[in-house]
Amino acid sequence: MLELIPAxxxxxxxxxxxxxxxxxxxxxxxxxxxxxAKAFEEAGIKRLHMVDLDGAKxxxxxxxxxxxxxxxxxxxxxxxxxGVRDITDADQALKAxxxxxxxxxxxxxxxxxxxxxxxxxxxxxxxxILAGDIKNGKVATSGWQQESDLDAxxxxxxxxxxxxRQVMVTDISRDGTLSGMNPAFYEKxxxxxxxxxxxxxxxxxxxxxxxxxxxxGVDAVIIGxxxxxxxxxxxxxxxxxxx
Length: 243
Known about the structure:
Layout: E1 3-11, E2 14-19, E3 22-28, H1 33-43, E4 47-52, H2 53-58, H3 64-73, E5 77-81, H4 87-95, E6 100-103, H5 105-108, H6 113-123, E7 128-135, E8 138-141, E9 146-151, H7 152-160, E10 166-171, H8 183-192, E11 197-201, H9 210-215, E12 220-223, H10 225-228, H11 234-241
Parallel strand pairs: 1-4, 1-12, 4-5, 5-6, 6-7, 7-10, 10-11, 11-12
Antiparallel strand pairs: 1-2, 2-3, 7-8, 8-9
């Protein structure tokens, strides 16, 4: 069974969803981050993916108070990302209640590769999730606003040698579109890096997609807009987890 990980994207302390990573294509949801988190927990979810989009855009976490509030009011294992550029940012996120820290831009920047190794040495590889945000076959950075020349396989395999096991791969072209996920995209990544715990993200539109993703070697999947738009419900999540 695939692990289900709801996504919670935050701008100005509020839950939002973007389309294809575009800040101009933003939907803001009225309920508080804590209310959503509690609903997920009550459904049987164990883990939450929280993205500080303000932090990703500006290069420094901006919504640590939201992280603290959700961590204080639930027992969810939170993986936090967005604007984590140095070890101080990582330390603050962990102290605010994150169990894992997502690292994308810092890891994708060649001159910071050695720096990320020091983070791993300091906290251990199990505290970090490598965020591979892929656009046109290349790793995108800075809240998906910039495209590097680094391809996904090279990026992932390089950090797998450091001991990083959890890798979240987002297909930016499908993220927030409800167009469905591409199992072949993830199968290629898993075949090239069979030892990683692969978390797929981008475009999930229904629970029917879970089985093909599992066959493709995916270990966990992010649920985002499909939930917030009502295509996947709390009842659906409960049914799946109890099956």
